[in-house]
Each structure stands twice: as C-alpha cells, then as structure tokens.
Amino acid sequence: MRVAVLGAGVVGVTTAYELARDGHEVTVIDRLSEAAGETSFANAGLVAPGHAYTWSSPKAPRILLRSLFDDSQALRFKPSLDVRLWSWSWKFLMNCTAEKARTNTKRKVRLCRYSQERLEGIAADTGVDYHGLDGGLLYLYRKPESFARGSANTRILSEEGLELRAVSPDEAARIDPALASVKDKFAGAVYCPSDGSGDARVFTQNLARHCAEELGVKFMFDAEVRGFETSGDRIARVTTSKGSVAADEFVLCLGVFAPDFARRLGVSLPVYPIKGYSVTMPIEATNLPPTVGGVDEDNLVAYARFGDRMRVTATAEFAGFDRSHKPEDFRHMLAAIRDIFPNGADYARPQYWAGLRPMTPEGTPIFGRGGRFANMVFNVGHGHMGWTMSAGSARITADIVKKAKPGFDPAGMLVQ
C-alpha cells in the first residue's frame, strides 16, 4: 500500500520506518531541506519516562499567573490577541485538576515506557547512532521540601511499573561523579535507572538515511504541503510546492502546523505551540561534563551530554508561533547549569535555539482516524515528550494504518 507521511521530524521519520518495515511504499514530505529541522532540531534529548508528569497540574495556574510579573517561572504566559491561545489555555486550565492530572500522567508514562522499548528495538535493528546514554537520569532537588514532594510524587509513576528511587547527595555523586564537588548544593535526587538520553536530531537524520537506503522510503524535501485533492470520503492526493503525491493512506505528523491542515479535513485538533529554549555548548578535554543527564527540578532546567556537546533546556512559553530569542532569554538556565557543572562545557561558545512544542491540553498525543476522510491517520501533539514518545507512537500509527489492533492501547488519546 502507498502511504504518504506528512512531516519529517522524529515522529514522522519513525512512523515512516515502521510503515516501511510493514511492507508499505512510503513517501515522506517536508517543507524543510532535511529531516529534524523543526521541533526535533535541538530539543532536550532526554528519554524520560521518569519525567512523564503532565504540565496541566493543580499548581500550573498559579505558576502561569506569577509569570505575568516574573520571567523566571518555568511556565510563562504571554498574552496576545490570538484567539487560539485563549481557547487552548482554557482547555489546559480545565485539565489542571488533581484527578485529570493523575489520569493524564498515567497515560503519558505508559506510552513513554512502551515507546522507550520500541526505540531500543529500532536502535538494535538498524544500528543507528544518536549519542545515546543509558545510565539513567537524575532529577535533582535543591530544597528539602521540594525533594520531599518530588519523592512522594514518584508514586504515580511507580504504580505503572517504573523503577524510581530517592537517593542522597552522596549517592547522586556516585551515580554521576561530575556532581561530587557540588553535591552539598542538593537535598537529594530521584534516580530513574532505566531513563536515558540521546540527540533526537542525529537519530532522526540517521534513521531517515537508513529508511532511504535500506527500506526504499522516498523523501521529498523543500516540498511545502499546500492542500489535498479528495474524492468522496477519501483523500486522493496531497498537493505540495513540488507537485502532488498520490497515496492510499496519509499520515499527518506536522507538529504545530497540524491543526491548520486538519481543519481542512473536518477535524479540530487541540494542539498549540509552546515555546522552549535550548543552548548547546562544546565539551573540551579540560571540561568535566555530566556523565548522565538530568533535571534541576527547582529551576526546571534539563541537561544532557551528546558526545562532545552539552545541551541545556528550559522554559515553556505560551507565546504562539514566535520563535525569536535573544541571549538574555538564556541567562537563567545558564546560571543554573553553571552552578551545577562549573566546568561542564565551554560556556563561552553557546549555540542558542528556540523551538515550538506541539502541545495538547492533556499533554498526551492524538492518534487515529477522524473527520470526513477515511484514509487520513493522525499522529500529532507530542509536546515536550516527542523524542521519548516517538517510537511507540510510530508503532501505534503503523498498526492503525494496517487496521490491526495496536500493541499499545491508545485509549483516551484518539482523535475526536
């Protein structure tokens, strides 16, 4: 069967891989000149079921309100005249109850665990390199009260079979020797030994190369999707700036751009761009970088090492499609990471980036068929966990395309 995948980020390329493995003739279409040029370009890189908590929690409204006056908040609300921002934010707030946060977090961690298994399988089957580290992740707490809360909150993830344990500063330093000189800055940490990290962009580009060379997947780059040609209840072709592509099935993996195209197909997707910031620095021989990734929980600053680079990420900004950034935007996260790893990287040579996460109010992605056309399948809305969720989401989507029962039950995550 001919399948057209719209989008060549980590979600689109892993989906193409699974579809090609199932024997389909796959074409991937993307408006940029290479894979992983959008949200997957410089994300946090953590493969982190141990951090699968939903953002829409009872404490989120207070943080967003405070962000109107304090730019240091991890969640920032930037008011605008965009009606979609207010509509999406209202849905987000409606998910900020304890009951809904628990439900959404459990769905997220189940999908993350399934996806991590699939990612490990893809890496083993293909030999694709992505600077992966599998020594676990450390979630660091500076204050006794936040450490107590963080340790207690792990129960919701542990109930789904995920191993997490609270560790002392001394044990955290044994797990990552780079913390030895600063361990007294922390009250403790939560360690998830099965978590890991890796460069999503390197993975996506190497997997795309494998798909093209070994599985016959065709990639159309610099091809902007413009619309669809339909016949009855089916899509016949997708039209692009490089011509039209006919297929039997179409898979929408367009991240923050998905809602506009879905609307043309009779589907309203509650996906909105939430801006995140990252900075990547080179690691020199004289540096002492982290040996495992982690999160400074009191500052919500994440970090990971990719070979000879260290990446630091922070902030979720409700600011629409604005990707602009300036050095001042990175001041807080750089101060936090230099406090933990004073000699972690060459901080004098930062590479700044800001990208847009395709978030749903629940924090869980959207799968399945919907709308007026029977041969459109959705795989969108992975938010800040797209790297972690990508491989599992790809397998779910491939199962839906071939009309088989998915190996993972996406209940509560199907398109409405």
From TrEMBL:
GO terms for cellular component: cytoplasm; plasma membrane. Keywords: Oxidoreductase. Its EC number is 1.4.99.-. One of its GO terms (biological process) is D-alanine catabolic process. Residues 2-399 form the FAD dependent oxidoreductase domain. The keyword Nucleotide-binding does not apply. GO terms for molecular function: D-amino-acid dehydrogenase activity. Belongs to the DadA oxidoreductase family. This is D-amino-acid dehydrogenase.
